[in-house]
Every structure is written in structure tokens, then in C-alpha cells.
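pinned: reference chain
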Amino acid sequence: MRYPFARFQNILLAARKENPDPELETCEEVLSYIAEKSVSGHEVRITDLIMLQVFGTGPTVHRKCNLLTERGYLGFEISKTDKRVKILALTKNGHKHLANRSKDMLQAINETA
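pinned: its C-alpha cells
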């Protein structure tokens, strides 16, 4: 019997093998979350990520966002409703990174089929 969850885990393992930057791996979940929220028209602040309590503690979330910013995948925009608020936003490189990782994921799916 094939278990969908087991297959999903094997796809994730195969995709991780293709990751050229293991240090970034723990930050990709943050990048992916911001991308998905942005597509649906939602703004994401660092405090939003911290309050979710799924990406780590406050310092961990800040470290992940700083690494993504240093790598050129994440930037900040000023909120349209409150000029004091910084909104997290993917850069062109951030979108490109997720597109490349999506290709890796599709390849991993085909390899584990």
C-alpha cells in the first residue's frame, strides 16, 4: 500500500538533495509563506511571522528574514496604510529562487513516481 504522506516526505527529501544552499533551507518556509500571502493580497510583517509561532522564536524569525535579505530574496516595502510599518516582500531574486525550487520539486515528483 502506498501512503500519500510517505510519498510527500520522499518528494521533500529528493528536493532537498537538489538544494544548492543548505543554509537557506530553513528559511525557504518563510519565503514561501510570504509569497503565498502576497499572491492573495495580504501584507506580511515580521511580527505576523512571529505571532504564528511556526517559524521559530522572535530572534529565529529575525535571523531567517535577515539571511533572506542578505541573499537578495527578501526586501521591505512601506505599508500603504501606515507609513511606520514595513511589509516583507519578495524581490525578483526571491521569485526566481522559488521558481527554481519549484522546478526541483517537479523533478523530485517525477523521480519518486
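why pinned: The two ends are 14 Å apart (CA to CA). The domain at 4-112 is CATH 1.10.10.10 (Arc Repressor Mutant, subunit A).
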